[in-house]
Here is the input.
Amino acid sequence: MGESTGRHEHRLPHEISENEKKAAARAHNEAEKDIENDAELSAHHPNDDLDEGETARLGEKTDLI
Here is the structure.
């Protein structure tokens, strides 16, 4: 068996530096802005993630054949 280093795959909140936390928050905010400004990145309808069968079962009309 391999040696255990006592580390885990994802660091816990107290193991992340303040600079890394701030950088992650800035990146998250930029991603949110991108999603707001790009229709392809945001959901247009609550059922957008449903497949054709689920959409049909809900009775919605689509241009899908």
Remarks:
- Helices lie at 18-37, 52-57.
- The two ends are 55 Å apart (CA to CA).
- The mean pLDDT is 76.
